[in-house]
Amino acid sequence: MTTEALHIPVMLAEVGDLLDPAPGAVVLDCTLGLGGHTAMMAARIGPSGRIIGIDQDINAIDKARGRLAGFAGQLDIVKSNFSSLAVVLDGLGVEKVNTILFDLGVSSLQLDDAGRGFSFRMDGPLDMRMDRAAATSAEDLVNEWPEEKLADIIFKYGEERFSRRIARVIVMARASERITTTARLADIVLRALPRGYQRNRLHPATRTFQALRIAVNRELEILGEALVTAFERLAPGGRMAVIAFHSLEDRIVKGAFKALAREGRAVLLTKKPLRPGDVEDADNPRARSARLRVIERIEGDGTFS
Ligand SMILES: C[S@@+](CC[C@H](N)C(=O)[O-])C[C@H]1O[C@@H](n2cnc3c(N)ncnc32)[C@H](O)[C@@H]1O
C-alpha cells in the first residue's frame, strides 16, 4: 500500500455537510495536505467554482497536485504558511471567499515518513519541520535551548508533568554527544521517567514529541491570528471549519469563534465540537482526537468592506 493511500481525510462527511460549499463557490483550504478534503469540496462547487489550497510542505503539495489534476483549471495551489493567507489571496486577486477549512496538524504522509522525524516509533533524523526550508529543526531546539526553556515547552505544549526531569536528562545526555535521532530522544525520555510510568495507552515519549513539534512549527503562536485573518476574508454568509487534534489547539479555536459570536459577527454552527463517529474512530487512528468546530459569518455584520 502506498503512503498516500493511508491518509484518510478526517470527518469528511461532517465537513462537507456543515461547510456545504455551493456550486460556484470560492473555497480556501488552508491545510491542503494530500487534498482529500479539497477533492470533496471541488466536486461540490463544480467547474464554475474556484479553490485555493495552501500548504507549507512541498512534499504534500507535489502529491496533492497529482491527485487533484482533474480540477487543475479551477485550482490554485500555493506553498506558504497559512499565517500568510492574506498575502496569498492578495497575490491571486481574491478578495473574499465563501468557504474556509483548517485541518490542523500533521498528515500521515509526514508522520509515517521516518526521514521527517515526527515519530518516535521509527528511527530517523530529529527534524519535525513541516516546512523543510524553515530555519529551526527539533534537533536545534533539543541541543541548543537552555534546560529551563525546554522544560517549559514540554510542560506547556506537551502537558507533561515530568517536564523538568525530562529536560534535565536531555541536557545531561547532550553534554556527552549531540542528540540527532528520534530513537535516541525517545530513549532519553524513557530514562527520565520514573519506573513503572504508565499513562493509559500513550507511549511515554508522546507528550515530549508533541511539544517539540508544536514548538518547531510555532503551531499555537500562529493559529489565533490566522483564524482572525481568515475570518476577515470570509464573505457574509460564508462558513469556516477547523479540525483540531489536541486540547491546546481546540482551546484557541473555541476562544476565537466565541469572541466572533459575542461580537455579533458570526453564528456558531457547532455549540460543542463535533467528534468522529465510532466507525471512523476505529478505522482511522488519526481521527480519534479530532474536534470539529464551524462558524458562519453573519450577513451585513457592519464590518464587511
Ligand atoms: C492534517 S493534514 C491535512 C490533510 C488534508 N485535509 C487531506 O485531506 O489530505 C495538515 C496539513 O497542513 C499543513 N500545515 C500545517 N500547519 C500549516 C501552516 N501553518 N501553514 C501551512 N500548512 C500547514 C501540513 O503540512 C499538512 O500537510
Question: Can you describe this structure?
Answer:
This protein is α/β, with parallel strands linked by helices. The protein folds into 2 domains: 3-109 and 220-297, Vaccinia Virus protein VP39 (Rossmann fold), CATH 3.40.50.150; 135-216, DNA polymerase, domain 1, CATH 1.10.150.170. It contains 14 helices and 7 strands. A 7-stranded mixed β-sheet has the order 3-2-1-4-5-7-6, with helices on both faces. Helix 8 crosses helix 11. It is globular, with a radius of gyration of 20 Å. The N and C termini lie far apart (49 Å). The structure holds S-adenosylmethionine (SAM). Residues 7, 9, 31, 33-37, 54-57, 60, 81-83, 103, 105-107, 130, 222 line the site of S-adenosylmethionine.
Biggest sheet record? 7 strands, mixed
Taken together, the total number of domains comes to: 2
* Structural classification: alpha/beta
Count of individual helical segments: 14
Mean pLDDT: 93
Order of helices and strands: HHEHEHEHEHHHHHHHEHEHE
Instruction: Please indicate the percent range of residues in DSSP E strands (runs of 2 or more).
Output: 5-15%
| Estimated helix fraction | 40-55%
CATH superfamily of the largest domain: Vaccinia Virus protein VP39
User: Do you know the CATH architecture of the largest domain?
Assistant: 3-Layer(aba) Sandwich
What is the name of the CATH class of the largest domain? Alpha Beta
The low-pLDDT segments are: 1-5
**What is the fold-level CATH name, i.e. the topology of the largest domain?**
Rossmann fold
**DSSP strand tally:** 7
What is the CA-atom radius of gyration, in angstroms?
A: 20 Å
Bound molecules: S-adenosylmethionine
Strand order of the largest sheet: 3-2-1-4-5-7-6
Distance between the termini: 49 Å
